[in-house]
Amino acid sequence: MSVEQPPLPVIFREKKAPHRPPYKRSRSQIKRSWRYFYLRFLRLRGTPHYISRGLAFGVFAGCFPLFGLQTIIGVLLAIIFRGHKLTAAAGTWVSNPLTYVPILAFNYKIGQFLLGFSIGKTQVSLPDNWQSWIELKESGLVFLITLFFGCLVVGLISAILTYIVSVRFLSRWRKRRYGL
């Protein structure tokens, strides 16, 4: 004979969360968020050169395929060359999951064009012997050298352009806003 237990008091019953539709941000909320970050950028403390130097080093670091290290490299470069650390971290966002592939493909093509060599369409078969492993290693090395050279060139050009544009933009905005 089993003894049935009395029902649990109301305070111990499982509570169900009220049904809420999925949260969607309206266009005005997104626009407000972008404006907030835009104004935060414009009102950062420091000279336009200091802020732009950090941003340029962040963009430079963001052009390299060192996923997970880009922010650290950008901030370290900003510290070494006395740039704004926050804008360096933000500058690395130029590469994100949506832009990795196009940026790296472009960098590789630039490296290929400037160095004048590439892997080409050589077929490396599955390694049956030691020589195939060496061929695979050498083609990988050529690929990395080509990619990093393209990243260096594109990163330098992007950093210089970022610095020039952001210095002019910040200087004009501050002159107009504060009359400096």
Can you lay out the helices and strands and say which pair or pack?
Blueprint: H1 27-42, H2 48-62, H3 70-80, H4 85-91, H5 100-115, H6 130-178
Helix pairs in contact: 2-3, 2-4, 2-6, 3-4, 5-6
Quick structural gist:
The chain has six helices and no strands. It is an all-alpha fold and 180 residues long. The chain crosses the membrane at residues 55-80, 140-167.
Give an overview in words.
- Residues 121-126 have low confidence and may be disordered.
- This protein has helices at residues 27-42, 48-62, 70-80, 85-91, 100-115, 130-178.
- The chain has 180 residues and is mostly helical.
- Helix 2 packs parallel to helix 4 (85-91) and helix 2 (48-62) runs antiparallel to helix 6 (130-178).
- It has six helices and no strands.
- Keywords: Membrane, Transmembrane, Transmembrane helix.
- This is DUF2062 domain-containing protein.
Tell me the series of helices and strands, N- to C-terminal. Answer: HHHHHH
Structural class: mainly alpha
Question: How many distinct helices?
Answer: 6
Radius of gyration: 26 Å
Helix content: 55-70%
Distance between the termini: 91 Å
Give the total of beta strands: 0
* Principal-axis shape: flat
- Unreliable stretches covering 5 or more consecutive residues: 121-126
What percent strand?
under 5%
Number of domains: 1
How many strands, what sense, and barrel or not for the largest sheet?
none
What is the mean pLDDT?
83
